[in-house]
């Protein structure tokens, strides 16, 4: 079987940026299928969602809605998640998830269970996604399906914080990340991987404020970009960052049989680049909300508790009516 990641026409994902008419022509000429596998167990549509390319996913829904299998699932390596489950697992996907549900509501298997026995409704409740959970219930999603933990969706309303955190981390979402952040980790002004004090920092407003306050911060290019091998890596001038970058450079050089000197460059960025970095942080500060994805999940639980109290009340009233 040929996977899309091995096909140079698809592997860079650059074709997704084409204007609509050109993209349609490209897909037709190259026999593109949105349901094809990117690699083993990982369909193309799951890949772009997992990489938070929501605008690309939405574009495909707009351009070729009938060619998308809305019940497409990934393989065992990734948990046998349906597209609906994956969308319910990705908090930043809110508007796209609702659009997907509305577009395919007559075809969706709302009660499909993944490898853990959970449905989309289980995950929507675990992550406090009130709007998604409400719509799934309105469309007839079962409230009675039991997962491998022996729990129905409603029983996750009071789940421990550890369950929320582990669920988010399972799909590589940082629980501390700001709800307005476009990705987990802080990068430099050119969107290159960035380490400060030997670690990649989460996109958190208080963290960025702390970085901005460091007047002595100097960024250094440690690892030089090599086509098909590695990105450019940038970091601060502390010893811990140097050591970690050196270890990474050794690993890259050894794995690819190239000279360490070629990639491990240790070049302080020019002053104008330092200023651009500071400006990019200031802009990001203005965009972020100060609310973490974890906090958003907890707040959603409170709204969902009210929803299920209403459902319980309606059930009681209906039962009383039938008895009388």
Written description of the protein model:
It is a single chain. This protein is mainly alpha-helical. The protein has two domains: 4-170, Alpha Horseshoe (Serine Threonine Protein Phosphatase 5, Tetratricopeptide repeat); 194-287, no CATH class. The protein has 13 helices and six strands. The protein has a four-stranded mixed sheet. Helix 9 runs antiparallel to helix 12 (271-287). It is globular.
One letter per element, helices H and strands E, the order comes to: HEEHHHHHHHEHEEHHEHH
Instruction: Indicate the multimeric state.
Output: single chain
C-alpha end-to-end distance: 63 Å
Output the number of helix runs.
13
Output mean pLDDT: 94
Structural class: mainly alpha
- Total number of distinct structural domains: 2
Main sheet makeup: 4 strands, mixed
The main sheet orders its strands as 3-5-4-6
CATH level-1 class of the largest domain = Mainly Alpha
What is the share of helical residues?
40-55%
Q: What is the CATH architecture annotation of the largest domain?
A: Alpha Horseshoe
What gyration radius follows from the Cα positions, in whole Å?
A: 23 Å
The CATH topology name of the largest domain reads: Serine Threonine Protein Phosphatase 5, Tetratricopeptide repeat
Poorly predicted runs are none
Give the amount of beta strand, in percent. Answer: 5-15%
Which superfamily, in CATH terms, is the homologous superfamily of the largest domain? Ankyrin repeat-containing domain
Protein name: Ankyrin repeats (3 copies)
Keywords: ANK repeat
